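User: My collaborator sent over this chain with a note saying "see what the structure looks like." That's all I know about it. Can you take a look?
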Amino acid sequence: MRLLHTSDWHLGRAFHRVNMLGAQAGFVGHLVETVREHSVDAVVVSGDVYDRAVPPLAAVELFDDALHRLAGLGVPTVMISGNHDSARRLGVGAGLIDRAGIHLRTDPAGCGTPVVLGDAHGDVAFYGLPYLEPALVKTEFGVEKAGHEAVLAAAMDRVRADLATRAAGTRSVVLAHAFVTGGEQSDSERDITVGGVAAVPAGVFDGVDYVALGHLHGCQTLTERVRYSGSPLPYSFSEHRHRKSMWLVDLGADGSVTAERIDCPVPRALARLRGTLADLLADPELTPHEDAWVEATLTDPVRPDEPMARLTERFPHTLSLVFDPERAPDEPGVSYARRLADRSDQQIAEDFVTHVRGAGPDDDEQAVLRDAFDAVRADETVREVAR
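Assistant: Without extra context I'll predict from the sequence alone. Here is the result:
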């Protein structure tokens, strides 16, 4: 069976104020053409279809168009909700849409109930594990302590239990939206940290033939059977080295996996440039970036006059301007934001405690801080779902 694995469409999202709806529509057209050209048997979409719980109307219309075009090809599509989606909204009408071959899986209670598709070699069971917010699903899965690993492990126990009841030789595919250990992050994924640990080991998914992951925006191979497709379009400058693509996966009669990357059309290249304003304006080696979307980091010790206006004369698509004067690390002018770079909320809070009283928090105090951050994140998730 030939699968097309994609995820993280983020319909409705902009890129530094640039409307991406046209590029997203271009991707949908490319997806449909790829399905047709490569004789794809099933499409899997591993979450974050939309960029927010209540998407703009234009994004909903594009999603509707995508579903109609895929259904028109007669190729089944299995789709789960991600942490950016409203599971209830995305899942509205799922029972009716099933009849058109579009299988929306947004209810955590249905993790162990697969969509079963067949080919000449027998059945393939597709299990949809929507994004599982630990604080909201721990009761459903009977876990004592809310955590990503615990709830995903419980969901996979249901998958393996169902798979054990099926005919010998039944192949299996799991769709999941999670941060799996070994994956490389970018700046455009929403933080899903709980209990100080967001990542789950790839071993959680043992026992199935292919795991189609969503959440991280870079296309990645964690194992031959566990892969991220990544987002089809860039949504932050941290993705400037990404090759945007989808996975074309052939699932053999014996459950073997071979995969090929299918490149996605990207509207414009990304470039991260760093240096003094004078150097950026004069360096001939930067000529290839003149038509790119640019993030420029200026290292001038004194902020130059009208830097954006001057940059856009050479780089008309400059979207982000950052000032990072080159100073010694111990100079008083080093910015607060720079000192906090790459530090988690938990680390920042612990540093504050150390600064105030001269000693860092002990184990119990660290646990209190961690529980407080978890409660805030869970409350934000509940309020977003309820919107």
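A starting point for your reply to your collaborator: The first strand starts at residue 2 and ends at 6.
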